[in-house]
């Protein structure tokens, strides 16, 4: 699946990729480093220690983002890996087939070029292909840019939907057909 905007200087291409590919692994490291450092700077006034960083990266293998019940999308800008979004099918939640959105990330130097919205749309398409009728996600309060992105694209705040150490707010979006 390729999504390009003729108004952008270079096209975005978004496609499924193996969780362990070099591009996916490098993007995961960049994502995890950024959100971890942001957390520790906010709460403890320091960056993530190397050992903490390595433990955190190793603990989240992305196993749930493998087919047939998940997918990891990698966005490339002008051919260069620039972002990710993961989707994994959770099954029924209150009678609705549900997928979870995770690892939504665009590299800092690639932000402001429309990639996040394209990644989100591609992730929703992937969730539909997995059979999901809705998408859920959790995030932290300090990730205000991500929260604004979700709100702009029809995600509604919800009661807690997952139990994770750093989850502070939850979102849900009902998925229409691919044409909507």
TrEMBL record:
Signal peptide per UniProt: none
Pfam families named among the record's database cross-references: Acetyltransf_1
Keyword 4Fe-4S: no
Residue ranges of coiled coil: none
EC nos: 2.3.1.-
A molecular-function term among this protein's GO annotations: acyltransferase activity
Keyword line: Acyltransferase, Transferase
Stretches assigned to the N-acetyltransferase domain: 26-176
The keyword Transferase is assigned to this record: yes
SUPFAM superfamilies per record: Acyl-CoA N-acyltransferases (Nat)
PANTHER family the record matches: AMINOALKYLPHOSPHONATE N-ACETYLTRANSFERASE-RELATED (PTHR43877:SF2), AMINOALKYLPHOSPHONATE N-ACETYLTRANSFERASE-RELATED-RELATED (PTHR43877)
Protein known as: GNAT family N-acetyltransferase
Species this protein is from: Streptomyces longisporoflavus
């Amino acid at each position: 699946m390729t999504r390009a905007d003729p108004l952008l200087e270079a096209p975005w291409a978004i496609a499924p990729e193996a969780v362990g590919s070099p591009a996916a692994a490098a993007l995961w490291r960049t994502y995890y480093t950024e959100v971890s450092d942001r957390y520790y700077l906010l709460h403890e006034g320091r960056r993530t220690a190397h050992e903490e960083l390595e433990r955190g990266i190793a603990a989240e293998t992305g196993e749930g983002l493998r087919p047939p019940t998940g997918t990891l999308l990698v966005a490339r800008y002008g051919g260069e890996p620039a972002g990710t979004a993961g989707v994994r099918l959770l099954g029924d939640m209150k009678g609705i087939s549900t997928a979870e959105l995770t690892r939504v990330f665009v590299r800092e130097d690639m932000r402001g070029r429309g990639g996040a919205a394209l990644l989100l749309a591609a992730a929703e398409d992937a969730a539909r292909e997995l059979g999901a009728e809705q998408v859920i996600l959790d995030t932290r309060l300090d990730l205000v840019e991500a929260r604004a992105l979700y709100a702009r694209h029809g995600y509604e705040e919800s009661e807690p939907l997952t139990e994770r150490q750093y989850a502070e707010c939850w979102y849900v979006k009902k998925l229409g057909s691919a044409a909507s």
